[in-house]
UniProtKB/TrEMBL annotation:
Signal peptide: none annotated. This is Right-handed parallel beta-helix repeat-containing protein. SUPFAM superfamilies: Pectin lyase-like (SSF51126). SMART domains: PbH1. InterPro entries: PbH1 (IPR006626), Pectin_lyas_fold (IPR012334), Pectin_lyase_fold/virulence (IPR011050). It comes from Oceaniferula marina.
Length: 689
């Protein structure tokens, strides 16, 4: 199915949605907001309001909480709107457009400016030799714990015990059993714990497998004499790796860890933030911002009452600076399968026909945008999403069950880049979990820590495990059901009972009706530098999906090797895909061009080309070579497809901010990005050999 065919189908889908406005014509409600406004004003262009919450409330009042009475537009004048609380929108806020005034640039910020910096003169024992006499500090409100700091718009580096590539991180730790009080971790190097705080500010960033099983466990109960701490996380428990080299740790956020310019730490208990300025930075004039909100906008429909949020639109607005929840505070309903943070600056749940167009979502502590559970007909177009702690966009449907309600969304002409900055490296530019019939095309995706586009579901062996299938089984702080958030109540009683007593086992056929990541069209996206942190997963990746997904005419470039990854990767139970006419240029060794497990069925692959091939860059697996993909020594197929995509994007105004495409031109020197990826013997690859 082509893009135009998919969009026609999507248009027919819209026709089945009841219009929220009746046949009667109603005058539009307009409300103006300005950073120089007054919340006691009338909300006109001459007398604008000052806050977004007051603008929302005024629209509610004018429409008597009935969005069908008239459409509304809330117009934001240029300048910064610093939020003290998340802007929450509900069904009565439907049929409302929030937009910039003309060409002005409104910025909705979750950050607060930190002032009053002074140079430290105390010679504290926890300050490293390198940092003595170089650290500045500022007072903040006690209890304010944040995970990001920005100096003149640039993300500063949180202090850390090592800045080495993760394969070189220390491995001298042993782990105890999960415990509700926190999982005990013991270290041979006891000295490193001497000045580490126990108040929950420090985090233990730990990798337990190369494919991104990692978390930011909150550190408590530090005992330097015994060489122990406790790891606190609802995301995952620590466990031993399948391969000895695929593990490692570092500590982050402590005054004792600051040992180079650009690093910072916060002591929330004392209400102090510390920073070693970079050369040339003047903290008397620099703007230093820390986030205080985890979400800027939360749209929440009421699915159980069949009251959704319709037609809330954002246009021309910049959203910036959010934080993330510490992992020991995560809600019980959050999905944890991908070892990522599913929260977002813009969080939509229970929505239809909402949109984000010509916006910028920057410096999110988690995802840029999440469309959670019921989300249909939503559009994210012509927007930039960048510098995120987790991924770019998350289409998060319900776990396996009968609720197939996240679908028919449209993601196009966006510039999505630089993810995993909060140590959630298993986060792609676009994540699709249990979501189908989506159209994702003409996006520029750059520098993802993991895959660029991933679509996943739940394996039948996990569906057959009662600990994962039913809620309620806890292992320490971790809730096993959160791995996939399945809906056992949707299954026949005999299946529920069979899973409980171990007499019923799902298989690839009986699981398929409950896998809703189906009929997705991924076409004409340009991907540059995937896998900036991890080794495997594919630029495009699928695992345990539904049927009839299409990957077509995508361009992929990486300046280094991908020896543990199939570039187009069909992992477990990724069946009945159409993969055609994709072009990829990988400047190094790869695992496979188009890879799939031998047990998968119904996949069709043709016309896929690896360009600029050199013999010393041979694929490690070549069973599908000359069948599903071919090598060519020139770059003509890449230039042809790239020109086609760029022409089509230019006709729509180009990608936001007109970025460099990230693929070298003919004869241009290749600039290597990221670490050189090596593949230790016996380590994990996308599809096992």
């Amino acid at each position: 199915m082509t893009i135009s065919q998919q969009l026609r189908r999507r248009a027919l889908h819209y026709l089945t949605i009841p219009c929220i406005i009746g046949g009667q014509s109603h005058a539009e409600t307009k409300v103006y907001v300005s950073p120089q406004g007054n919340d006691l004003a009338e909300g006109s262009i001459e007398q604008p309001l000052a806050s977004l919450g007051k603008a929302r409330d005024l629209v509610r009042k004018k429409r008597n909480n009935d969005p069908s009475s008239a459409p509304a537009t809330i117009i934001l004048r240029g300048g910064s709107y610093s939020l003290n609380e998340t802007l929450r929108l509900e069904p009565q806020d439907s049929n409302t457009t929030w937009r910039a005034h003309n060409d002005e640039t409104p910025v909705i910020s979750g950050g607060a400016i930190i002032k009053g910096w002074t140079k430290m003169n105390q010679d504290l024992p926890e300050i490293s030799e390198q940092a003595k006499g170089r650290i500045w500090k500022a007072r903040i409100q006690p209890g304010w714990r944040f995970h990001y700091l920005f100096v003149d718009g640039q993300r500063a580096q949180r202090s850390m015990s090592t800045d080495a590539f993760w394969r070189k991180w220390p491995k001298d730790h042993t782990i105890g059993k999960p415990d509700t009080k926190g999982q005990l971790v013991t270290f041979k190097n006891k000295n490193q714990l001497s000045h580490l705080p126990s108040n929950g500010d420090a985090e233990f960033v730990c990798i337990i497998a190369q494919y991104g099983v990692m978390g930011n466990g909150v550190v408590t109960d530090v005992n330097p004499e015994k060489g122990t701490i406790r790891w606190n996380s609802k995301l995952l428990n620590l466990r031993n790796s399948r391969h000895g080299g695929e593990r490692g740790y570092r500590f982050e956020n402590a005054l004792c860890l600051i040992d180079q310019p650009g690093e910072w730490a916060v002591d929330s208990e004392q209400g102090v933030v510390y920073y070693w300025p970079n050369k040339g930075e003047d903290l008397n004039s620099a703007q230093v911002i820390a986030p205080r909100l985890n979400r800027l906008v939360h749209i929440q429909g009421q699915e159980d009452q069949q009251s959704l949020v319709h037609k809330v639109n954002f246009k021309g607005i910049t959203f910036a600076y959010t934080d993330r929840l510490p992992e020991n505070q995560w809600p019980d309903h959050w999905l944890c399968r991908q070892w990522e943070n599913v929260d977002a600056s813009l969080y939509f749940s229970g929505t239809e026909d909402c949109s984000v167009r010509h916006c910028r979502i920057l410096h999110s502590g988690s995802y840029g945008i999440t469309i959670n559970h019921h989300g249909q007909g939503n559009a994210i177009e012509h927007s930039e999403i960048g510098y995120t702690g987790s991924g770019g966009i998350f289409l998060e449907g319900y776990g396996p069950g009968n609720l197939d309600v996240n679908k028919h969304n449209h993601i196009a002409y966006n510039y999505i880049h630089d993810h995993g900055l909060g140590n959630y490296w298993h986060s792609p530019s676009i994540q699709i979990y249990q979501s189908g019939h989506n159209t994702i095309h003409h996006n520029l995706l750059q520098r993802s820590a993991y895959s660029s586009i991933s679509m996943v579901g739940m394996h039948y062996k996990y569906m057959s495990d009662k600990k994962l299938f039913f809620p309620g089984t806890r292992d320490g702080q971790w809730h096993a059901w959160n791995y996939f958030c399945a809906r056992p109540q949707d299954f026949p009683k005999e299946i529920q009972e069979g899973v409980k007593n171990g007499t019923y086992r799902f298989n690839r056929e009986t699981m398929k009706p409950y896998m809703h990541s189906r009929n997705n069209l991924i076409e004409k996206n340009v991907i540059s530098e995937p896998h900036s942190k991890l080794n495997e997963g594919g630029a495009l990746y699928a695992w345990c999906t539904g049927k009839d997904n299409v990957w077509r005419k995508n361009v992929i470039f990486k300046s280094r090797s991908m020896p543990g990854s199939s570039i187009l990767a069909l992992d477990d139970i990724a069946e009945y895909f159409t993969i055609e006419d994709n072009v990829f240029w990988i400047n190094g060794k790869i695992l496979d061009g188009v890879g799939a497990r031998g047990t998968e069925r119904g996949n069709t692959a043709s016309g896929n080309i690896r360009v600029n091939f050199r013999k010393d860059h041979q694929a490690r697996r070549r069973g599908n070579l000359n069948k599903w993909w071919v090598n060519v020594s020139d770059r003509a197929p890449l230039d042809k497809l790239l020109n086609e995509i760029r022409t089509e994007v230019s006709s729509k105004g180009g990608w936001p901010t007109l970025p460099e495409i990230g693929i070298p031109s003919e004869g241009e020197t290749i600039t290597k990005y990221g670490e050189e990826i090596t593949q230790p013997k016996g380590s994990h690859v996308t599809i096992e050999e």
